[in-house]
Design goal:
The protein is mainly alpha-helical. About 65% of the residues lie in helices and about 0% in strands. It has one domain.
């Protein structure tokens, strides 16, 4: 997913041509932040478990089941032609204004 996100984020949608160095620097910065966030999720999960909250391990299979069912429902709705979207996704990408 990282290459797709970088393509979306770094696309030339504003019509201005950026230098190779600028695009490379921005791509490396975005990739570093995304990689750190991805690793941070696993560090946080490890800290929670090691802090003695082992009951969380008993909840994970049920949480996974609920997420799986929800994704199945969303997938079926999309196959049937429904548009499933979230308002927060409008702010993602290079054309978003901050």
């Amino acid at each position: 997913m990282l290459p797709s996100f970088l393509t979306l984020y770094l696309a030339d949608s504003d019509g201005q041509r950026r230098t190779l160095l600028a695009r490379t620097t921005e791509g490396l910065a975005v990739g570093t932040v995304l990689s750190a966030a991805f690793g941070g999720v696993f560090v946080l999960a490890g800290l929670i478990v090691s802090a003695g909250l082992r009951f969380v391990l008993d909840v994970v299979p049920w949480l996974a089941l609920v997420i799986g069912v929800a994704l199945t429902i969303v997938g079926v709705a999309m196959v049937l032609g429904r548009h499933v979207g979230f308002g927060a996704t409008a702010s993602v990408g290079p054309s978003a204004t901050a």
